[in-house]
Design a protein that fits this description.
With about 400 residues, this protein is of the alpha+beta class. The protein folds into two domains: about 180 residues, FAD/NAD(P)-binding domain (3-Layer(bba) Sandwich); about 160 residues, D-Amino Acid Oxidase, Chain A, domain 2, CATH 3.30.9. About 25% of the residues lie in helices and about 30% in strands. The strands form three sheets. Strands 5, 6, 7, 13, 14, 15, 16, 17 and 18 form a nine-stranded mixed beta sheet that branches. Strands 1, 2, 9, 10, 11, 12, 19 and 20 form an eight-stranded mixed beta sheet that branches. The protein is globular. It starts with a strand and ends in a 19-residue tail after the last helix.
Amino acid sequence: MERCEVAVLGLGAMGAATVYQLAKAGVKVIGVDRYHPPHTQGSSHGDTRITRLSVGEGAQYLPIVRNSHRIWRELEALSGESLFEQCGVLVMTSNPDYDPQDQNDFTHRTVNLAQANGIEHEVLSATQIRQRFPQFSPVLDTAIGYFEPAGGYVRPERCIAVQLQLAEQHGATLYKGETITHITSDEQGVTVTTDQRTILADKVVISAGMWSQDLLGEPFDRLLRVCRQKLFWFELEPQAQFAEVSPTFILHHGPGDADMHYGFPPLPGEGSLKVASEQYSVATSPDALDRTISAAEEREMFDTQVRGKIAGVTSRVATSSVCTYTVTPDGDFIIDEHPHLKNTLVVSACSGHGFKHSAALGEALAQWCVRGRSELDLSAFSLKRFDGQS
């Protein structure tokens, strides 16, 4: 049996950040992952992830992402790697049914949050959007945009690799390619059994993503759903015109949840544009997940999300990928102590918008392990909000 102060189970976005921060603080920590992170088997891949200060999902996220931006820059200085590209974020509504008075509109919510919290931004008209960002020339005349210069994108695989490397330099022990088979807790601590060893830890942080349902048991098995998501890189037209500095973007082009996509600027030398949408209607499981994207799915994505909405993009798919969102009933995170396992903190699910927050959450989780509390207020993500739900 191996002993440690903290064991971190799952070394994706949250786990890598947590094991790094713990090792940095001098904690004897062991990290375990069933694959070899960074990898493409879970949720923390795809080359680019949006980060923005004004998170339209809720004001409770703003302090977290602020801290993450600080930590990305610290990690860049330590590693020499480029992790955070501050190219700006453009959130747009270009909807035939757009109502300027609808404060539930995602762009309006983003603007309101920025105004309330002093986040630097601009509100753009359709004409201004077209002039500054010609790739969005197809927007409707009634379109509205929110531009945040402090936003951009982070590189998930690089972020994970750098944090795991630094964690090992600080003395962390990482076991990759090992599957957790059992977790129990008693007065001695938390016992973690893998297919290769047994670990006794004073405390455990579980950040297992889509494997959390089976690993965590009640009530997580009924609260969490795994949803398959598709990522596409569409080839550009030879004469495609993009702004010299193009932003990451989110475009709502209709009234429904499916009438939305997000994407990134063309990366140098790639000749393609990454675009993706989100779906929450169909659930899957790790064993049943279809990791291939069909030609029919490629055509549907282009026809419903790209054609007539982004200029300079062809229907040819340079590459594609599948990832998963593990989502809660309200779309917010769960960060709380496990109700049945002592000294066990759960950080899942992150409902598809967790990577931008992961660096700061790793810092906060490390503080919880060392001090019993974190500097960030994470009460909004408590399990208590689901009390009474069946």
